[in-house]
User: Fold this.
Amino acid sequence: MATDHASCVERADRLVALVMAIAIVWTGAVGCGPPVARLVPAGGIVLIGGEPAADVSVQFLPDPLPGEVRPTSFAVTDASGRFQLKTTEGGAGAVVGGHTVILADTLEERPAQGETATRPPRIDARFSTLAGGLRCDIASEGGEVTLELP
Assistant:
């Protein structure tokens, strides 16, 4: 009987050791993940037809970089067409490198289905999609960019 008890204690000790090892590995893995890209202060101005454009939503979608988290940055232009980017996670600025830029007019008229708009849109629809062709680079020191639309 003593042999059975010793055997049970030995198995329990091994089980506790295994659970502890798994917990240590799991705890270490939870804190790990791809590094988050460094943010730099970034902002600028949106011009439509050479004039500052207020109330334009600006999204900077960084080019992917394997092994690095590269958050999207966004802003809405003020009355003078200026904007300061922040990330969707609340960080200030944008990541360094190339970005696809998507613009949307927050004041765009959106008539009900079947109705016609009473004024033309300020921003061509091609600038409101990923395939829109508006590209911008954020320099390693950050800074101001000018987004000029026809």
Notes: The chain has one helix and eleven strands.
